[in-house]
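Reviewers of the previous submission asked for a worked example of the structure-prediction workflow described in the proposal, so we include one complete record here. The input consisted solely of the amino acid sequence. No template or homolog information was supplied to the procedure at any stage.
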Amino acid sequence: MISTHPLLPKLKQLKLSGMLGTLDLRAEQATQEQLSPLEFFALLLDDELERREQNRMNYRLATSGCNPAKTLSHFDFSAAPGVNRSFITDLATGAFIQRHENVLFCGPTGVGKTHLANALGVEALKRNFRVISKSTFRLLSDLNASRANGSYNRQMTTLLRADLLILDDFGLQPLPPPAIQDLYEIICERYECGSILVTSNRAFEEWAEVFNNDLLSSAALDRLTHHAHSLIIQGESYRQLSRRKEALLKAKS
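From that input alone, the workflow returned the following structure tokens.
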């Protein structure tokens, strides 16, 4: 039992208690393969480093808002023929984040915009980038609510410091004046300092309506679209296609 292992107190003191998970396995491997003490120790260190990296990844995922199940490997490119796979693969390298460039996905509901955005967020997390992903309305509502408890400055700083900020469903719901001002500030402050990935089911020409102010929209969208990679995804809702396939299967059974 790990909880009663004689080495547990010492490993806990050294903050290496995770080693117990593979200690007996590695000890047996060392005996069978006649490994030297240094080789045995190196295996334990590799296990510990892998465990710590996995814990860090799990923490980054949990705090980012990204869905770990929506990855590029789970995206059905065959159902979205208008999506250039090599273009998405290039974005997945994170080079656009290093260059502080933006990514804009536009298209009707259900064509995979959110999945792709989330998948790129997961890829960025794997490369140790700081990522925050939320629906635009929810992010701005939470930010506005933070004014009441005094955490507004801290939350705004977190949003500005993220390497990649994913604003999902941009323009889906009308925004109150404080949220519009916050959105403007976020876009302006992150300009050429941090990347923003936006998904929207509204045409690019309609994005100005989100701000309900010609001056704000002009200044914000000029910064958002400068140094930006744009992708218009066309096609039918993947969810609707799936429902029809399920209905056909049920009808045949």
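The chain has two domains: 2-63, 76-239. We consider this example representative of the routine output the project will generate in years two and three.
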